[in-house]
Every structure is written in structure tokens, then in C-alpha cells.
Amino acid sequence: MRRTVFNEDHEAFRDTIRAFIEAEVVPVYDEWFAAGQAPREFYYKLGELGVFGINVPEEFGGAGLDTHKFEAVQYEETARAGVSFGGSGVHVLLALPYLKMLATDEQKKRYLPKFVTGEEMWALAMTEPGTGSDVAGMKTTAKLSEDGTHYVLNGAKTFITGGVQADRVIVCARTSAPREDDRRFGISLFAVDAKSEGYSVGRKLDKLGLRTSDTAELAFVDVKVPVEDLLGEENKGFYYLGQNLPSERWGIAFGAYAQAKAAVRFAQQYVQERTVFGKPVAHFQNTKFELAACQAEVDAAEAVADRALEALDAGELTAAEAASAKLFCTEVAHRVIDRCLQLHGGYGYMNEYPIARLYADNRVNRIYGGTSEVMKSIIAKSMGL
Q1: Which of 248, 290, 297, 302 is catalytic?
Q2: In angstroms, rounded to a whole number, what is the distance separating the alpha carbons of residues 200 and 312?
Q3: 248 tagged catalytic
Q4: Which residues pair with 152 in a beta bridge?
Q5: For the residues 34-38, what does the mean pLDDT come to?
Q6: CA distance 25 to 2
Q7: Sign of the CA dihedral 228, 230, 231, 236?
């Protein structure tokens, strides 16, 4: 089936990204893997390449486009090469939508030029120890000072991807107590400078997968946040978070599909090269049947991911549709990658093979951005159940 989601511009970008990955990432990726993060200077290279500015208005140094298709190409190309761009994904997929939606003209002039170049890397701090998916249960507070010039931020966050190297973090905090009839009320968003006194990065978390993206615990002790760094209106943070969840979940869905597609490619190459009992593994009927079944699942996931991408670009992707895409694509990727690892035999369990890293990286897709169980709840609610 011929795909219609990408045009010539996207394919030209694909060629550029593929060459960049081969030159700048593949030769040093083992070093990043061992270090547990991409080097900070790598993000400047991504800035120079223009990947951070695609969806940023031209007046702030970006390309002024309004599409997620170039991000989609990056998902496919990094998965294809068995690498990642470190923690930079949250910079564009998670942080930028809030800046475009909520930042004032004055804030955009301060934030976006450095965002585009990679001079300031951004992260999003929502999850707290003990709250997980229950965002409304957060305990971090931001209290307005008596003179009204700043907020005083206190609390802790965890599982913050990009948090070790972030220069600014969009922090969700309570500015008011929840209402009896609305526990989601009272959350606000702040663009917090990581150099602020009282702001600290705790442990860099030791994760099962996604080894090259830095994930951290953050702590705030009487951090002064200027009122000029409040994003949007006070107490409306939960509403803002809900606005961007469909795009976040699309990103996870598309990334998972891309990983499944890459897994089939890795397995296909391996079984043609590896011999057992004097024959290539690809010669056996079981191998053919397994890969054929995996390919069929990838084809279906591609269609779902592409459809969600078109809806997202058109501004029509609903919460239930995004949940459905995430649920389907992440569950498909789980099955496909597991079967492709099996075809590698014992070597599939070795980190020197991309399939092993892919297996570990993929597991979190059914957890973050909302678990598969949460996705099912959202879909069921949309069905009137």
C-alpha cells in the first residue's frame, strides 16, 4: 500500500536526518549508552540542523511550519538506526506546544530564540512521587509573594525526562487548593530557570531502557519564580495539560509503530545472515510465518499512526482517538519486538544488538503518557460506557 502522509519535503528531510544519524550518532552511540545520556553539545548540533525550530514562528528563528510530520520522520529514522536523540524529544513534543499556546509575546521573545538553537533545553515536570497518573493529586506548591513579584515554589518531581540537562522546566504546581466540586482546579504552569537558587537535580534515574535519555528527580526548596514566568492563567494548568495530551500520546503511538517497523527490519537482516543446521534461519517456515505475521501487524499500526498524524495536523485528533492510537500501536510494538527478539535467539538478549535495546526501550510506551489501562478507560468513556 502506498503511503500518502509524506511529501517531497518530508522525504528530503528524511535523507538529511538519515545522513546526520550515520555521521553524528551511530559512531558514538555506544558511548552515550554507557554514559546514560547524550552529551549536551549534541543538542546544539540538532539546533544547527534546524530540528528544534520547525514549528517555531519565523520571527523567533524557526521555520514557521505547523505540522508534526517532520517529527514523524525523525521517529522512523532514529528507530531504523537503533538510536535516539537523547532527551531532546520532550523539548519539542512536550514543551513547545505549551510555549506556543500559552506564552505571551514578551515570553516568546525571551524563550523561543534560545529554544531553537538548543541554547536552552526544556523539559516538563508533571509527575510526582506517589501520584503517578493522578495529576490532580500533586503536592508541589507555588505561593505568590506578599509584594506580588514572584512565586515561592516548593515540592518534588520524578521521572522527568531531560531533567538532568534541562535549562528550563515547565513545572506544574498548586497555586490554590482544589475545590470540593473540582479537584483539578488550582494547578498552574511555570517556566522555571534551572539555575534558580533552591532548584536541584536529584538522582539521575537508572532506567530499564531509554538509556541515552537523562531522566531525573527534581526538588524545589523556596525557589523564587518571577511572575513573568507564569505560563497562561493561574489555576488553569490542568486544562492546559489536557489540551496537549493528544499530541503527546500520538508521539508515543507513532514512536512505537516506528520501533516495531525497525524490529522487523533488524530481524529480517539477522535471519538471512545467521545459519542453523547449515541453513539460514530465514529458510525455515516458522521464521517466514513469524516475520509475515509481524509485518502484517506493522502495516496495521502504520495505518493507525498515519491516520492519527493527519488528524493531529488538522487539529481534529480527539482524546479518545489519541488514546486508541496509543493503545493499539504500543501493544502491537510490544508483540512484534518480542517475536523479533526471539528470532535472534540468544544474541537477541545482548545489548550489542539493536533488538535488545529496542526491547528495553519499548516497554515504557505502555506506561508513560498514560498507561494502557488509562487509555482503555478513556476509550470506554467515549463509548458511553
Answers
A1: 248
A2: 36
A3: yes
A4: 143, 224
A5: 93
A6: 30
A7: negative
What is the pTM (predicted TM-score) of this model? 0.94
Side chain identity, residue 48: E
How is residue 163 annotated by DSSP? T
Can you list the alpha helix ranges (DSSP code H) found in 36-68? 40-49
Of the CA atoms within 13 Å of residue 222, those in its CB half-sphere come to 0
Confidence of residue 1 (pLDDT cuts 50, 70, 90): low
Question: Residue 238 is placed in which grid cell?
Answer: 490542568
- 3-state percent breakdown (helix, strand, coil) of the chain, nearest 5: 55, 15, 30
Helices (H), 207-275: 237-273
Q: Which three cell numbers stand for residue 261?
A: 517497523
Assigned C-alpha cell, 370: 498514560
Rg, the chain, Cα only = 21
Tally of residues, the chain: 385
Rounded Cα–Cα distance for residues 20 and 357 (Å): 21
Tell me the DSSP string of 269-299: HHHHH-EETTEEGGGSHHHHHHHHHHHHHHH
Cell of 185: 482546579
Residue 133 has pLDDT above 70, yes or no: no
Number of Cβ within 10 Å of residue 36's Cβ equals: 17
**Grid cell of 322 as nine digits:** 489519541
CA quadruple 195, 203, 216, 158: dihedral, nearest 10: -110
Question: What cell numbers appear for 270 in the block?
Answer: 539477522
